[in-house]
Specification:
The complex is a heterodimer. By secondary structure, chain A is mainly alpha-helical. Chain A has 17 helices and no strands. The chains are: A mainly alpha, B mainly alpha.
């Protein structure tokens, strides 16, 4: 019974925790600009994250080591600094965007400008990471994040899409001069969905929750069902934007206007549901980002770490956490719109994906870590394909950022 | 070690040149007016939704803060953007902008004021900007 509960909780939290500021921004903009023409990118990114999460969970459960531990051990400290540096740059931008997302959500509920609410969001995150246990941080916002399933209700209430919109599924409406923007969104969708922080967080979480070789079923079900169903929120938001915002000539350039897509089928309730969904998903992601990066640094430098430990025993881990939060707050206080920041952060993450993901191919085939649970041919082929896609995306992401001016 | 003549900045410059030169991308002016047109459309929809009871006044107020930050200062930037049109078109756009930005700055969220006129101004600006931007 306990095992069934653990599996159910794993699925539910993965569903609730799938979306964040990046996925909301990219799904909204993709639907508003290109109809259903980028659904393929969301599905591709979902398949990739399912495979990666399953692998990193299997690795940790069997080896009792985190992904960061393994990179440092296998490739040396100097190599480890590359993924670490890329994480610090990309995730500080993403954390600022997530804090901005929390502030925007509160702003949509209260009418107060998000600029004033940004410090409130940062303070809320600080209090939670300082005082809450791992279980609360992992499950609390994610359970609240189940509100994102209301996006699916919105899609159902809107009824079937028009034939012309349906055709954009296989014939994306990319007009002359828009191809760079279309590719930029593909890169941003991949970067937003396959965020490496998820892998570091998931891996460290498996240690916090004392996973072992017996947890492989839980890991597989959480990865496949949780992430698979989790992407429903992302897809539903894209479809809502395509049906509601696109005919109105809107491009989902701000987070608030994406919520208008929910207000059409559900009225005021829809706008509240969107604000609550944005709040919970961005809060959950902010907590996960800050924990994932702090875990990564602590593991790399050999510090004591763990959310269930006393802050006195893990002083350096907690100090880093506060410093990292402060950096994100400084970035956020520059006043850049959170949606634009989320898109930019997603592209930067896409740029760094090869650095974060390359070690997978070697680590997942090392029997010293995984015994008889090393990757088979399917997993290895999948990783090679994921890496090829990551390299292609990395090469085009920065030129596209320059050309399109960031979407 | 023999030099290959390959460099990352060179490759990026080539990629940008290729993408930009092959009509893969719009001019900075077209990008700016398209995005402004879409923001005016969003502002018009927000105003209509608040008066038809689909969203709260708080939601609308918070949204307009963001529209304002997207649209503020556009009249200063547009004339100097690469790809800007002739004087007549530019003056027409700036005139529409002037009226529409007033609605964005002071949206009529109460029933007592003439919100329909603001929606009309925002829609006029949106359509003109999107047309010039090629969207």
């Amino acid at each position: 019974m306990k095992k069934v509960f653990a599996i159910a909780l794993g699925i539910v939290t993965a569903i609730g925790g799938f979306l964040d500021a990046g996925t909301v921004a990219t799904s909204g903009e993709a639907g508003a600009k290109y109809g259903f023409g980028l659904i393929w990118a969301v599905i591709l990114a979902t398949i990739e994250i399912i495979l990666l999460v399953e692998m990193v969970g299997r690795f940790t459960a069997v080896s009792q080591k985190t992904y960061a531990d393994a990179i440092r051990e296998k490739f040396g400290f100097k190599f480890y600094l590359f993924p670490l540096a890329s994480e610090l740059i990309a995730e500080s931008l993403l954390l600022a965007a997530e804090l901005g997302g929390v502030a925007i959500a509160l702003s949509l509920l209260t009418g107060i400008s998000w600029h004033y609410l940004f410090p409130v969001a940062a303070l809320l995150v600080l209090v939670l990471v300082w005082s809450a246990s791992f279980d609360i941080i992992e499950n609390g916002p994610a359970l609240l994040g189940l509100v994102t399933l209301s996006f699916l209700v919105g899609v159902i209430l809107l009824g079937p899409p028009k034939l012309t919109l349906l055709q954009t599924l296989w014939k994306p409406p990319v007009q002359q001069g828009q191809f760079a923007d279309y590719l930029y969104l593909v890169a941003a969708i991949l970067g937003a969905t396959i965020s490496p922080y998820l892998l570091y967080f998931y891996s460290s979480g498996a240690i916090e929750e004392h996973w072992s070789g017996k947890s492989l079923l839980l890991n597989r079900v959480t990865a496949i069902a949780g992430m698979g169903f989790g992407s429903i929120g992302s897809l539903a938001l894209l479809i809502l934007s395509a049906i509601v915002l696109r005919p109105l000539n809107m491009q989902a350039g701000t987070l608030g206007e994406i919520g208008l897509a929910m207000a059409k089928p559900l009225g005021i309730l829809g706008s509240y549901l969107f604000a609550v969904a944005l709040f919970s998903t961005c809060l959950g992601a902010a907590l996960e980002v800050i924990l994932a990066v702090s875990y990564n640094v602590a593991q790399g430098f050999g510090w004591e770490w763990g959310q269930n430990q006393n802050p006195v025993q893990t002083a350096r881990y907690y100090t880093f956490m506060i410093v990292f939060l402060l950096v994100a707050v400084i970035i956020g206080l520059l006043g850049i719109d959170p949606l634009q920041l989320a898109l930019f952060a997603s592209t930067v993450i896409a740029l760094f994906l090869p650095i974060s993901l390359s070690p997978f191919l070697f680590i997942m085939n090392d029997p010293a870590y995984l015994k008889d649970k090393t990757n088979g041919w399917f997993d290895n082929t999948a990783i090679i394909l994921i890496l090829l896609i990551a390299f292609a995306v990395a090469i085009v992401s920065i030129p596209l950022e320059i050309i399109t001016g960031g979407g | 070690m023999k030099k290959t003549g390959f460099s990352l900045p060179g490759l990026l410059a080539l990629l940008i040149w290729t993408l930009a030169g092959c009509q893969f991308t719009q001019s900075p002016f077209a990008l700016a007016v398209s995005s402004a047109g879409a923001e005016f459309a969003a502002a018009a929809t927000t105003l209509s939704y608040v008066h038809s009871g689909k969203i709260t006044a708080q939601y609308a107020r918070a949204s307009f803060v963001n529209y304002r930050s997207q649209l503020d200062g556009l009249d200063q930037q547009l004339p100097s953007q690469q790809g800007a049109p002739g004087k007549t078109t530019m003056n027409h756009l700036l005139a529409l902008y002037k009226v529409a930005i007033r609605a964005v700055d002071q949206p009529c969220l109460a029933v007592s004021c003439n919100w329909q006129a603001q929606v009309a101004a925002l829609n006029r600006a949106s359509q003109a900007f999107l047309k010039v931007g090629g969207s």
